[in-house]
DNA sequence: ATGACAATCAGAGATTGA
């Protein structure tokens, strides 16, 4: 089973780039972030024609997440537990039924800038709720993963110019401490479990030719429970997608599982 | 030190992103 995450930066603006990549990469499951659309505005037919089941959790203008799956989806839930008053569409999860069932969570973690301020407070509070959800998934002892745009640069080697991010919410010590606390519950970060090389990024700014200079950051991640990590056979970043026509500023990251 | 770039909603330019 091939599962991908891709922050598409707007579904309306990314239909061509997204469908081109789907046709080429043929993931069984694609977790999308920043659809920037309400559920009714999501062009689900385009994906259904390609054999995907479509589940969305959208909102007007910003944020929004979705799951595309060629396999059946069961027990779909929307919203990260822990704050009934949170109206931002950043979390969707479902059970994907292949050779075996995998619980799959798609997430768009808050950016958190500027620091300090209410947006940074919201990011850290959201990460505390994420930690609680991670604990519950681990306690289930089932194969499960949480993937998406974490808006976290885990280590200096995950940025071309880490010094430029020192005071940014993506790299602040509070953010990275919260990330480590979640990983250290016993989760496996898929990409670094298989590849320790620097220079591998998943986001490049649109400005100043960042992609051509490989001035990027790695902020799109998979975290897996041990039962899921045992099934992993590969993890790659489709960096070339950033060089395509009208690209998102993020690129797809994917894992393959024996499932 | 600043802006550069893109998307959305709206129908100009503010807001958001990272």
Question: Quick summary of this structure?
Answer:
The protein is of the alpha+beta class.
Commentary on this structure:
The protein is an alpha+beta fold and 259 residues long. It has a single domain, classed as 4-Layer Sandwich (Deoxyribonuclease I, Chain A). The chain contains 6 helices and 14 strands. A 6-stranded mixed beta sheet has the order 3-4-2-1-14-13. Strands 5-6-7-8-12-9 form a 6-stranded mixed beta sheet. Strand 1, helix 1 and strand 2 form a beta-alpha-beta unit. Helix 3 packs parallel to helix 4. It is globular and about 45 Å long. The N and C termini lie close together (6 Å). It binds one DNA strand of 18 nucleotides through loops.
> Element order, helices and strands?
EHEHEEEEEHEHEHEEEHEE
The main pleated sheet reads as: 6 strands, mixed
Q: Number of DSSP helices? A: 6
What's the shape? globular
What is the SS-derived class?
alpha+beta
Q: What's the Cα radius of gyration?
A: 17 Å
Q: What's the CATH class label? A: Alpha Beta
Q: What separation lies between the terminal Cα atoms?
A: 6 Å
List its salient traits:
single chain; 259 residues; alpha+beta; Deoxyribonuclease I, Chain A; 6-stranded mixed beta sheet; 6 helices; 14 strands; globular
SSE layout and pairing:
Elements: E1 2-7, H1 11-25, E2 29-33, H2 44-48, E3 53-57, E4 65-69, E5 73-78, E6 91-97, E7 101-108, H3 118-140, E8 144-149, H4 173-183, E9 188-189, H5 190-194, E10 203-204, E11 216-217, E12 220-224, H6 226-229, E13 232-237, E14 253-257
Parallel strand pairs: 1-2, 7-8
Antiparallel strand pairs: 1-14, 2-4, 3-4, 5-6, 6-7, 8-12, 9-12, 10-11, 13-14
This protein binds one DNA strand of 18 nucleotides through loops.
